[in-house]
Each structure stands twice: as C-alpha cells, then as structure tokens.
Design the sequence.
C-alpha cells in the first residue's frame, strides 16, 4: 500500500466527495446519472444499512481518492460468511497510485476481522485495467453471473 494513503470508514463529512466518486463509478459502468440512487446508496453506506460498510482511500492532504462498498453474505455451500465487494472505484486522476490496492488490502483486513472466509466481487470481463490489479490480489473464478428480474404479477 502506498504510504501517502490511508483507508478508513466513511464519515458524514465525506458525503460530497463520496457522491462525486460514486457518480464516477456509475458513469464508468454506464449506469447513467441518477442522483436518487447516489443519495440512497450514500445513506445506506454511511448508516451501515443493509449490512453495507463504506471505506474510502484518503491522501495525506485529506482528499478522497477512492471508495469501496462492502457487505457480509451467507455462504450456505460452505457454512461460512463472506465479504462481498459491491463497488470499488478510484478517481481516474489518482489511478496507478495504489488506491485500488489499498482498498483491496483493507477489504481483506476487514474480512479477517469479521471472520469471513472470502472476499468476493464481480467485474466486467473487458475491464482489463481493473482485472490486472485484481489478478494480483485474488483468483478469478469460472462462475458466470446472471441477473433475473423479479416476477411481475397482476
């Protein structure tokens, strides 16, 4: 981890910059502009609702450079609990400074503190830049992810 970075939990005072970073994350994944989704997610993260924990990577001058949103999940197949990394994002201007690595290391530490058996996440198959970082910290799995909409009943 870079020595000019600190990773810590989000605080209420991080809201404006966190929202900018999360909007950047949403833009990167072409999710569109949605201030309601950003505000709702902020409330979940800062309030640790739905089991979410928000981490931020902060430079020595106090600038938020990246974020990670994580939550615990049950793993029935192993009878253990895992830590799921929902979102990881570094400010494009701060990339290649160790922001992502610092957040992944902090996620691994949090998993150990909570007795989790794994830290798991997904990414786009064509996200080569992120995958080169992820390959240094984790093992890609052979699993394919599916999304199914909820049933719509009259």
Sequence:
């Amino acid at each position: 981890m870079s020595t000019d970075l600190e990773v810590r939990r989000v605080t209420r005072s991080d809201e404006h910059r966190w929202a900018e970073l999360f909007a950047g994350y949403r833009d990167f994944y072409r999710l569109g502009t949605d201030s309601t989704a950003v505000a709702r997610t902020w409330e979940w993260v800062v309030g640790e609702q739905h089991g979410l924990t928000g981490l931020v990577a902060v430079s020595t001058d106090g600038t938020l450079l990246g974020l990670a949103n994580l939550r615990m999940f049950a793993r029935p197949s192993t009878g253990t609990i895992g830590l799921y990394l929902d979102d990881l994002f570094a400010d494009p201007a701060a990339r290649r400074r160790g922001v992502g690595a610092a957040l992944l290391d902090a996620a691994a530490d949090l998993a150990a503190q909570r007795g989790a058996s794994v830290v798991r996440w997904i990414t786009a198959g064509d996200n080569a830049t992120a995958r080169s970082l992820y390959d240094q910290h984790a093992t890609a799995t052979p699993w394919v992810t599916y999304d199914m909409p909820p049933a719509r009943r009259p």
Remarks:
- The domain at 5-137 is CATH 3.40.630.30 (Aminopeptidase).
- The chain has a mean pLDDT of 92.
